[in-house]
Amino acid sequence: EIVKIGEQYWMAENLRYLPQVDGADTSLIQPKYYVYNYTGTEIEAAKTTANYETYGALYNWLAALTACPAGWHLPTSAEWDILVESVGNEAATKLKATSVWPSGDKTDEFGFGALPGGRFDNGKFVTLLNNGHWWTSTMQKSSQADIKSMAWNLNYLSTIPNEKHKAYSLRCIAGEVDFTDFNFIDKSLKLKVNSEFNLIVSYTPTNATLRNLSWLSSDKSVATVDANGKIKALKAGTTVIRATAESGKVEECEVTVLIPVESVSFAEQTIEMYLGQDSNQIATVLPKNSADQSLLWTSSNENVAIVDENGKITSIKPGKSTISAIAENGVKAECDVLVKYEFLDQRDNNIYPLVEIDSQLWMAENLRYLPSLNDAVSEASIPMYYVYDYKDKDVDSAKNTDNYKTYGTLYNWLAALSACPAGWHLSTNDEWSVLIDYVEDNTGTKLKSKDGWERDSGVDEYGFKAMPGGFYSNEEFSTEGFYGYWWGAEDSDMSKAYAHYIDEVQYGITKEGAKDAGFSVRCVAGEVELEEIKLANEFIKIELGNEHVLEVSYFPTSATNKTLTWTSSDESVATVDKNGKIKTLNAGTTTITAVSENGKLAECEVSVIVFAESITLSEDFIKLAFRQETTLVATILPENTTENTLTWTSSNIYIAPVDQNGKVTVFGAGHAVITATTENGKKAECMVQVVKKHEFIDQRDNYAYTMVHIGDQLWMAENLRYLPQVNGFEYYENHSMDTPKYYVFYHDNDNVSDAKATSEYQTYGALYNWQAALTACPAGWHLPTEEEWNILYNYIGSGAKDKLKSDNLWDGYANGTDDYGFSALPGGYYIVERSGYGIFGYEFQDARWWGGTEKNLLESYGQIINSTITPSSNIGKHHGLAVRCVAGEVPLSHIKLASDVFKMKLNSEHLMKVSYVPINTTSSRNITWSSSNKSVATIDKNGKVKSLKTGKTIITATAENGSKAECEVEVMQKLEFLDKRDNHTYKIVQIEDQIWMGENLRYLPEVNGVSINTANPRYYVYDYKGTDVTAAKNTSNYRDYGAMYNYPAAINACPAGLRLPTNHDWTNLMDIAGGSSVAGLKLNATSGWSYGNDGTDEYGFSALPSGYFSAGAFSQVLINAYWWSAQDSTAGPYYWRILGGDGYGYRMGYSDINKSDAFAVRCIAGKDKTASD
């Protein structure tokens, strides 16, 4: 029956086509056909079963591909999906037949009649009445294809990939399917004469029904092929089977027809073998041109003998086994193997009788293995072999002695561990105990041989035949005829191992023997698995050119599989041979690995070293002053020396101790010898002579400074003289706060030698601007901070100025008493006026020194002594002052950048500035710069940023101590800022490292006329007294000056990304612009000011005289400019102003005011950085 569902025509019942029936035989490569629960092969019988009548046939996937009749084909998974889509929701319910299913919903709405026909799965028929399964032609991988499945309790169909050898029902769908491609599964075959084989063809698509191919055999006398691809083998030979499609494509398979084996035979039917012996059994296969000459070899008792794939027989234990050689078609030959109770040691062909006692198989004679002789010398570290009373090295001669023939060989313990042949092992303490427990009483009598003992021979009840072979110890042979000694496999300590003995009376219990002694060996059958290996060293140093053998320990010591594979991880450094001998090649490190046959591993890291041949020091004689330091540098030869670790010593640690880096520090007067010693004892020395106890030598120019202890501080007792350059008189414009400058009083050229020759230099030393002073002090000293100067003053107490001043040269004021030796001299200073040259002044009147504490961008604190002491004076950084250094290093805490946000114009440059904390640090000031996005901006080694394209990058400064500081740099086409609140675009300006609005804020959410309020925000426009925002914005004052804000409004007026500036921000701006008295000149706009106070607008700040609002009135427009600061105080918040009134010039400053007053707002970018940070 057929049914149309949607546009498809389906069979309305399962396919019944049954060309054969295969019972329960499975196959992936041949078509197979089944009927549920029928296990026979009779087609007609299968067709009479109820399951065939109800459910039709079951097919493996290969059969399913061609099972559908002409005009029909095996549906794809997609065609099943179309069926399900046509049926709609709960497809399984609508497709199931209304009968047979055990329960559940089933309506058969479309007449599809799906039945639960089960499946054939790995030799079993299963799931009848519960599930219906149908093949699709959709293949998932080489061994799987999709099936469609229904379950009795589910209302949907499942798609499941399944193995192709399983068998499921078929539903065919109308329509022929032509193939587009085909391939042979087999490209070559071997067939036997008179056999048949169906060539398997893979078609694309897999459900193709039109499979017309033309078949041809290249040699029909060897094999023929019919129209369906069935090959029939006729005679031995080779032919090529070809299939040709109508498209012209050809596939070929080479078929070789072979003759079957008729007989297999052995030359010997019975073989006798010694234990330990191998034998090659030769099998004859007839006819000689038979199909497959290969044989399968088997042993009936592999406990007795085993055989490999080539017929090699190996004896395992005494007994009998049958060896078979089986051809592919089952024809075979057999022979009996008898393994005797004798063992053949293939190393020297000695034959040993065997005895089985309890479960143990023992050699019934002492071991005779004798690879070498070592005179009669006792030694435990290498294998040693002896023959009783024989003291020569001739092995053959020793083997001819009666003692060798009777007692075998004597071994030291190391030789005994590996003496037993393959398949045997040195007997352990436990194995001796099993032997003795089994023998029970009168052990010695039962185990001793019947003759050979001087007294009380035994009965040899078990055939053990213990002989009194004596022993070797301390270069003497002893007790032959009276005692038998045998090594055990365990040691008791580094020098002793366990042995077992039988004397003339009985069996003696286990005893300890020195490992260099010579005892007999009795071997026990069986391999002992190696559990662990250890190397004597996990790390070892070997001098280049030397060799070293790694010692190995095996656990258990009785283990028999002790063969190791040795490797070196770096053979350019060292190689290792099969015996663990290391040969060094080059300096370096390599790992030597030993691996046993069963995968146990041990490693040793080998460092190939080069010792020093000579050592020299950078100085062999040096003068140092008290508390001075220097570091000696050692040169070690040859250059490839690896053992560079030095031991530094001083002959007098109280005068000049030395650390392990060669750093010498002077603590007392006298002399000391500094010695550097290499690991192999090479030495070099330097004599250190200490000059006056209170002098310090600056190694930069070798000047010796006097020093003075005052309290807990050590000060230089004279001004610093360090003068790497000299700058002479300079115009104000050429002076600098950022570049180091050096001066000598009254000296007016750049010749350093001339400057040093002046009496002023000889008397007062050099003068330094503040930037030079920060790094002027020599190593071990630093520029003192204000706190350190105050400690000095507080220690001295009252009258400090007189007690510190020198007792001469003070012409302008009275000389001092110089109580502490500080010797403050009136060396004057170099002052820079704002016009004209710098001048030198106040010689004989003032002593002025820099302090290591900064006040602001323009000034730092200095010290002045004249008629009084003026500590913490504010002095412009460009002036030249003397320097007094105080002892001690000042480590760097961290670094800072002037700004954490920075905006640049495209194709511009900017120099980043770094601040060091503390500012007088003596640590290295080297900075490494980096840019996170070099396509936006690069930065060079000096901190100069170059913008390349618009975007953002993070500039990072890294100090040598790892301290980092970062700044986000944004490169813009124009320096502008868009306030999204009102879409006004502001000009922004970069002033040094500050980012300011270049105009006043215009944000005006409301306008409050002249209303006054202290607590709530109020907004104003100069001279506008209404409340209409639009009208206010149309005034000229709003266009020129922007809005005005009371303090509550100003605090939150700046747009996101900007903020209200602090006093610190305003102070920095003022300092950058030259200070309070002149800042307005550079900040004012070039027009718009009264009284001739238009400025140069050097930075683009464009300050305008916007006036202010106070007490209900607007005032001072065109005259003064006012802006809010974010700082508040008890007296009121701060504001900043530039005064442009008559007589004020360009003065800039600040004050506090009422919060109800209104001023302009200028916003700034970046985080607020206080003066302390």
- Low-pLDDT residue intervals, each spanning 5 or more residues: none
Overall geometry comes to flat
Strand segment tally: 90
User: Which bin fits the share of residues in helices?
Assistant: 10-25%
What profile does the largest beta sheet have?
Answer: 6 strands, mixed
Number of structurally distinct domains: 9
Count of individual helical segments: 20
Mean pLDDT: 90
| Amount of beta strand | 35-45%
Structural class: mainly beta
End-to-end separation? 95 Å
Radius of gyration: 54 Å
Description:
With 1173 residues, this protein is mainly beta. The chain folds into nine domains: 2-174, no CATH class; 181-258, Immunoglobulin-like, CATH 2.60.40; 263-340, Immunoglobulin-like (Sandwich); 345-525, no CATH class; 532-607, Immunoglobulin-like, CATH 2.60.40.1080; 614-691, Immunoglobulin-like; 694-887, no CATH class; 894-972, Immunoglobulin-like, CATH 2.60.40.1080; and more. Strands 22, 25, 28, 29, 30 and 31 form a six-stranded mixed sheet that branches. The protein has a four-stranded mixed sheet with strand order 13-20-19-16, with no helix packed on it. The protein has a four-stranded mixed sheet with strand order 42-49-48-45, with no helix packed on it. The radius of gyration is 54 Å and the shape is flat. It starts with a strand and ends in an 8-residue tail after the last strand.
